[in-house]
Amino acid sequence: MNGLKKIKSALISVYYKDQLDDLVKELNKNGVKIYSTGGTQKFIEELGIKVQSVEELTSYPSILGGRVKTLHPKVFGGILARREQSSDIKQLSEYDIPEIDLVIVDLYPFEETLNSGANEQEIIEKIDIGGISLIRAAAKNFKDVAIVSSKTQYQPLLKMLQSQKGEITLEQRAAFAADAFQISSAYDSAIYGFFAGNKGEYFKLSAGPQRTLRYGENPHQAGYFHGDFNELFDQLHGKEISYNNLLDIEAAINLIKEFTDTTFAILKHNNACGVASRPALIDAWKDALAGDPVSAFGGILITNREVDKETADEINDLFFEVIIAPSYTSESLKTLKTKKNRIILVLKEIKLPTLQYRSMLNGVLVQDKDLKTESRDEMQLVTEKAPEESQYEDLSFANILVKHSKSNAIVLAKNKQLLASGVGQTSRIDALKQAIEKAKSFGFDLNNSVMASDAFFPFADSVEIASKEGINAVIQPGGSIRDKDTIDYCNQNNLAMVFTGIRHFKH
After folding, report:
1. Could you tell me the CA-to-CA distances from 231 to 258, 302, 353 in Å, in that order?
2. Which residues sit opposite 328 in a β-bridge?
3. How many degrees, rounded to 5, is the angle at CA 262 between CA 405 and CA 441?
4. Are the beta carbons of 341 and 322 closer than 8 angstroms?
5. pLDDT value at position 148?
6. Distance CA 372, CA 64 (A)
7. How far apart are CA 17 and CA 275, in angstroms?
8. What contacts 393, CB < 8 A, 6 or more positions away?
């Protein structure tokens, strides 16, 4: 091993003390001189281990309500001194500054405080100054100092010390330094986001840890996920989640969160191919599957209710990649786990980000998520005929589905069931023709069904085609210079139509 460093002294000052005791005991066993502050010092002393306070080292007390404790040359000098430079060592001796070989310091929980709904002053007080300075100083001088900047590193460091007789290699110190700068960078990004809000001039986002995926969108592409997947889900069964699985999982979650009724949805390539809302989960599943039993093969399933055994028995006949639900009965899990690669996820209650990011050319596109879903009160009746009460429910249902479909998109629905959709088309009329053909191929009767469009109809031809197939209620944003032509056709042919004033492009 190259660059072995014997740890003879350590500064320990941490917020999180979980599993710190074993590490401190190992340091003490190795005869390491320990310096500490405040609560950490008390924690170490209660273990029966001798510790010197930073106040004693610096001859200054902790001041300003704890805001200034470690910001002193006797602390930073011992960390930043270059051991190979005689002038640095001479100055340490001149000013009676001890060398510090190991720094174990974490940061105040700024993001946790921010997300807790705390007031501004409480949030600002969790902006760490001393900790971030110690971390950066130790990481900068990694050739001589080891920096442990997270509680997740307590156990790895302990194992190193035990297996390497109290020594740490240069490679290990460099790895700790890289982690330290990642932590400090993420911390500063969160603080910048708090002060700048959505109006910040610069895009700063730190997401981690990194999860290596089997591959990217295609096998020849590398793929990674940066984020805490376990914060969102409990994976109960199945193989590793893929890049494409994650794309579909996000689309599925965004869709199902729109529904309060018992609902089942099946997605493929980020689009719903089957959705139904019913009083009983088993019926929601059967009617969702009926929407497109062909595309459902290899799809992603999601529901907003606990999966019971009866429903699981029906689902089990289909090959699918992933199922997501808030919970499962023990009997349903026995059935679903009969396929070893099937991914079974429990969706946790968590607040998702409200911004979306996409790499673009040599930069990043940022936008607000499309969180707008129009209520019935926001639907403007523009035709002489009004939708029936049941049709208003279907219009709301179809409008949710079209919002979550790739543009250009048309959705046909009836009785809270997706009959068919046309998605990702270069023209709106092609999307409609695709939806009609698909609905007919699966034996659906389009009479008295409804149609939703993610954007306005540029001409009256789409409502004309829809009318001739028996569709008699339409929901769309409106806004075309030829809206009058479309409205006139509806009035002449006894169609009901409402405008929402909201476009839902999705690319």
Report:
1. 21, 18, 13
2. 307
3. 50
4. no
5. 95
6. 47
7. 48
8. 416
42 — pLDDT class (breaks 50, 70, 90): very high
CB atoms within 10 A of CB 230: 10
- Degrees (nearest 5) of the Cα angle 275, 279, 284? 25
Contacts of 98 (CB under 8 A, 6+ apart): 9, 33, 57, 74, 78, 92
Q: Is 62 helix (H, G, I), strand (E, B) or coil?
A: coil
Residues tagged active-site: 140, 269
Q: Is pLDDT above 70 for 460? A: yes
| pLDDT at residue 1 tops 50 | no
DSSP string covering 87-113: HHHHHHHHTT-----EEEE----HHHH
Torsion of CA 224, 226, 231, 235, to 10 degrees: 0
Q: Are 146 and 138 in contact (CB under 8 A)?
A: yes
Query: From CA 6, how far away is CA 101, in angstroms rounded?
Result: 8
Task: Give me 409's structure tokens.
Answer: 């998109």
| String of DSSP letters for 113-143 | HHHTT--HHHHHHT--SHHHHHHHHHHHTTT
Tell if the pTM clears 0.85, that is, is over it. Answer: no
Q: Is the peptide bond before 209 cis (omega within 30 degrees of 0)?
A: yes
Interatomic CA distance for residues 424 and 427, integer angstroms: 9
Determine the longest span between alpha carbons in the chain, in angstroms. 97
The two tokens of residue 470 are 């028996």
Helices (H), 150-298: 154-163, 170-196, 229-232, 243-256, 281-290
Find out whether 295 and 316 touch, Cβ atoms under 8 Å. Answer: no
- For 444, the token pair is 């659906």
The structure tokens listed for 102 are 């190991």
